[in-house]
Design a protein that fits this description.
7-stranded parallel sheet, 7 strands, 38% helix, 7 helices, alpha/beta, 229 residues
C-alpha cells in the first residue's frame, strides 16, 4: 500500500486508474479542475480517496493546489485538452493553452512533488499516438504528444533514480469519447486485433509502468498493433 496521485482522475481512464489503486488499498488523491467534482468522485471511489482542485492550465497555482499532498509513491498524469488545430486555421490562444496544460503543467506538477516522492516512486505521463500518426487537425496534438516523449526522457535523467515513463494509447474504444462509435471507427479495420483497445488494457499498462522497476524513460504504445499498418 502507498499513495497514488492521479491528475485528471475524476473521469475516463484516470478514474479507472484511481479506482484500481484504491482497490489495492492505496491512499488515492484525484484531481479535477472542479473541486466539487473531484470530491464527489473520491467519495464514489471510496476507501482512502480524496479529491482536490488542480488546473494544469494555470501552472503558477499548482504548488498551492498540491500543498496538502504528503509523500507520494506513484504519480499518474492523464489530464488532456482536446484541440483541433491546423496551420490554416491556427488559434494561438487555444494552442498556448494546450501546450501549457500538457507540457508546462505536467512538468510543474512533477517539480512540485519531487521532494515528496518516496524511494522507488514512479511517474507515468499520458501522451498519445498522434505523435506517430498525424491526422487533419492534429497540429498541436501531434506536437504536444511528441513533447511528452522529450519531457519523459529528460525527467528520467534529471530525477534519477525516480522512474518516469510515458504511455501513448491508440483510440480507446470504450472511453467516454469513443464508446458510441467503437465498432465503426476507421481504426478498427487498421488494427491487427480487429478491435480498439480498452480502458482496462490502458489501465493495466499504466500499472505495469508504475510497478516494474526495469521500466524507465520509455514510451509504451498501447494500440493493438495499429502502428504496424
Amino acid at each position: 500500500m502507498g499513495t497514488t496521485v492521479v491528475v485528471g482522475g475524476s473521469h475516463g481512464i484516470g478514474r479507472l486508474v484511481a479506482e484500481r489503486a484504491a482497490g489495492r488499498g492505496d491512499t488515492v488523491v484525484i484531481t479535477s479542475r472542479d473541486k466539487g467534482r473531484a470530491e464527489t468522485v473520491a467519495t464514489e471511489i471510496g476507501g482512502d480517496a480524496k479529491g482536490i482542485a488542480l488546473d494544469l492550465a494555470a501552472p503558477t497555482t499548482i504548488e498551492a493546489a498540491l500543498a496538502e499532498v504528503g509523500e507520494v509513491d506513484h504519480l499518474v498524469i492523464t489530464a488532456i485538452e482536446q484541440t483541433v488545430q491546423s496551420i490554416g486555421t491556427f488559434d494561438v490562444a487555444d494552442a498556448i493553452k494546450s501546450v501549457t496544460i500538457k507540457l508546462v503543467g505536467y512538468a510543474e506538477t512533477v517539480r512540485v512533488l519531487t521532494a515528496r516522492f518516496r524511494p522507488g516512486a514512479s511517474v507515468v505521463l499520458f501522451g498519445g499516438l498522434a505523435k506517430e500518426r498525424p491526422y487533419p487537425g492534429s497540429t498541436m496534438v501531434t506536437t504536444i504528444n511528441a513533447g511528452v516523449t522529450g519531457l519523459t526522457r529528460t525527467l528520467a535523467k534529471e530525477l534519477a533514480p525516480l522512474r518516469v515513463n510515458a504511455l501513448h494509447s491508440g483510440v480507446v474504444g470504450d472511453s467516454p469519447k469513443w464508446s458510441a462509435v467503437k465498432d465503426t471507427h476507421p481504426a478498427v479495420a487498421r488494427t491487427p486485433l480487429g478491435r480498439l483497445v480498452t480502458m482496462d488494457e490502458v489501465a493495466d499498462a499504466t500499472e505495469f509502468l508504475l510497478r516494474n522497476g526495469g521500466m524507465n524513460g520509455h514510451d509504451l504504445n498501447v494500440d493493438g498493433g495499429w502502428l504496424l499498418t
